[in-house]
Amino acid sequence: MMITYRKLLLTLAVSFASVMPAMAAQVSYGKWVLTLDEATQMVAMTRDGKSVLHDVTARFKFNSTVYQTAGYGTAQVSEQEFTNAVGSGKQVTILYQNGNLPNVEQKFYLFADRDYLLTDVTLSMPDGGSLGSNYICPIYSEANNLFLPQDVNNRFLTVPYDNDGFVTYGSYPLSRPSSTTSGASGRFARDSISFEVTAIFNGVTQEGMVLGSVTHDMWKSAVRLTGSPLSQGHVSKLECFSGVTHAATRDERNGVLQPHGTVRGTTVSSALMLVGLFDDWRTGLETFGEVNAAITPKHPCALNSIWGWNSWGGMEKNCNYEGALSVSDFIKEKLQDKANFAPDGVIYVGLDAWDNMNWDQRKKFVEYCHANGQEAGCYWTPWSDWVGSESTALEGNNGYTYGDAVLRINGRPIGALDPTSPATKSRVNWFCEKFLQSGFKYLKLDFVTTGSREADSYQGEGIYTGTQAYNYGMNYLRERLGDSVVIDLSISPLFPYEFADARRISCDAWGEMWHTSYMMNSFSFGWWLDRVYNFNDPDHLVMGNRSEAENISRMTTAVLTGYNILGDNLSTRGSSVGTTVSQNKAVKFSTVERINDLIAMHLKFRPAYGHRLFGANSSIDLFYAEADDSYVVVHFNYGAGNKTFNLDLSTLGIDASTIDTGRSLECWSGEAVDMTGGTLNYSSPNDLARVFRLYKKQ
Prior knowledge:
This protein is of the alpha+beta class. The chain has ten helices and 41 strands.
């Protein structure tokens, strides 16, 4: 069942309250001090005595006018204890009032031992009447905020709204370099935007701020930032807000941007926002994910790793019944029970473009997979209108047409279905019943971003925004399917997450190095998403006719994610038979036991840094994780030619003296490691990934 932010607020347990006038409004609790300036009515935040943000005001839109709480009217501060899903602590509330304008109540949730606080803003009318707003900003400052070392290594992370159109994450300099030898690379972060969350960090010290929304049931949220003009490395404007639309949220059509839906009620609240200053920005993003999951738990999944095959990577639109049956046989004969492939005993054989089969064939395919000791997967786009004809009957002969289900802007259909419409729900019922009756246990959902589009209106009662509609529809779909079906999101928003077991971390990726480096850009800055999804899906692992180095690199992405869905055409009969070359490669690189052992462990890797970018897609090249008995270090050479490295393991928090060099090895080649001089010394041929397992001394 969907957990909403409103339910979270109802969990607050108030023990006592006190009120103080604005002139005495300084509150300290744990690591944090909040100060409300009497003259400006702006807030300053410090953590452990260090300035985090100052001159902070809240902003909101009411009757088409944007107001801010700085100088708004009267301000009254109160304190009380609270308990919510994240923990217990002190709630500090600032109530701003200004005649007949909305009352503005900003709450700060402080914890005794956390490097972050939470905050939100609630609007209400003084007379208790209803109101509406499509923009609420709990954190806004035009002051020069400097909470990092003053140098050119400060970075601003841009996070995309979804994974469509081969969009990438960005790590951009916060300040313009004063010379071409400054070491700063990439575009200057002027007036940049990041969706739902960002990190502002120093690449050398790793310290950084993380801020973003931790509830996702109502709003599209974002962080806008302007950096500094030269090399000062400060933030000159910061806006963390609910109510964004943008071309990147897919709300622009024919050059016209659709505004965010207006939320209405007797109270209207922003998303709950996290503001944290961390000694390590990577820990901050991981913590951000964990806070999200504490408020809205991720979907439970019993599997530790995912294994199987999907038809799109090699067969694409040529998927056919006889060919799919032969793939099931191929996997059973060549991969199943070999070299620790799928040690949990669950292998998914998935049909992607399945239009060439009827439902009777799909059901027989499922039965065939079961006979081979496998589970079957399928594909669907629940919120997409591919028909484009309003008079066409919806699937299932339920009496509805597509015209009953479509979303509209200015009265015209936009190629998306309203997830809250009774017609769409009837279509969901029909397809889900078909999937369940056929016995599918894995469902890849694609193009689901269409269900989050802002539109003229939604048919569901009390639904005002695209995010609300998306939550409604995904919750309905998940309840219809139950918990036994693994849902993997393909093209989809980053948030919300709780309806799926996995999400493809990037757009489509095949076998060439460009695709691997593109997918790794998303993992470089979105690795922490396994705190809200059970798995980051690296997409179908295709070997094809690419070089052996590229094949190894592509398969290594499964080590980082614990998700191994092969993509080559493995069919040996039917209308689209695969090549022997790609099939042999799929077997060769899927039966390396040392690699499969690591995939099955599903370790939590993180990037070694965030300011050094490599390859055509600006990706991180070095990652590491710790297991009970070893450390695993992974390095990618994104087409940079043959290189040699002497890696100081202490930069990864690893003490070289604790490594058993006699047992440690590079997992693809099986070669012993060279740690002469206390560093990890290795060569990196062009396009190759290296996977080092460094065993701890016993």
